[in-house]
Amino acid sequence: MAEPLRVAVLGLVHDHVWSNIPNLLKADSVRVVAAADAHPELQRQFESKVSGAQAFADPHQCLDTTRPDAVLVCDTNARSVELVELAAERGLPCVLEKPMANRLAGADRALMACRRAGVPLIINWPTAWAPALWHAGRLVLSGAMGPIWQARYHAAHNGPKSVGCSEFFVDWLYDEAANGPGALMDYCGYGAALCRWLQGMPERVTAFAGRFVKSEAIPNDNAVMLLKYPNAISLLEASWTQIGALPFKGATINCVEGCIIPRGHDLLVTSAANPQGETIPADPAPPHLQNLGAYLTAVVREGQPPEGILDPQISRDAQAIMEAGVESIETGVARPVSA
User: Fold this and answer.
1) What pTM does this model have?
2) Which of 61, 91, 315, 332 has the maximal Cβ count within 10 Å?
3) CATH (domain of 272)
């Protein structure tokens, strides 16, 4: 039996790290051995949660001392790019927490660093581990539901501070240089990645954003993006001001033959024969897509090609879609998407 993949975590200020580590450890083929972060409190938290692992203040020291087989990068959107470059220079496969960067230039840097080094890059979207996503994708890409005429993705909560994000997370999410522009960068990426995967690149993007409710000095707390395709218009909604669970987060995929709403382990599907819709259980995800640890092992050890929203090219293009949205907000006109 092969030795487990030894993973080091670079950056602990992204709150998703505390769910990503257990997601890695669901696979017996993975061990988390170290982390690097400048904050002593987060170092202590990491060592208390991950038995036998060691925390460092400096990422260079972490990598040089522990010599991991791969890294998980969970720093600010801006600094994560530098950490991917650092790991790639050492020949280490990288898992990068979504989106990819604070702006498109950073996403391109991360992608090119891994390509130059010949190492895999995986972009972790939390939604990737719901089997309904992959089932919906197969239905659409097989042509069974006909072409998409509109995909809509709604992502929202009542703002990072209001929903209890850590002070470390809040500090950089509210900083445009570290995060990118507010709710748009935090939440529009989910839909941008889905649309890029299922529809390809849009011709142009129109976007609107503003700070409508929150008192903090943030770029925006709400954003809407319209993606124009030759035969479709898709809609991305991001909010840091929504109270409660309604409207539901997630995707609504309208196709010529019906509608698909993936929800975790189930899908709601409508058709001409059943316009009221029916809930069907999602097919189980294949073994390598059941958790982050299994996927990392498949990519590194078995040469599994990137797929869906985990594919770094898909995520790079999603970042380009968001960049066009930022440019549209700044100029007041629709903007093309940079290929």
Assistant:
1) 0.97
2) 315
3) 3.30.360.10
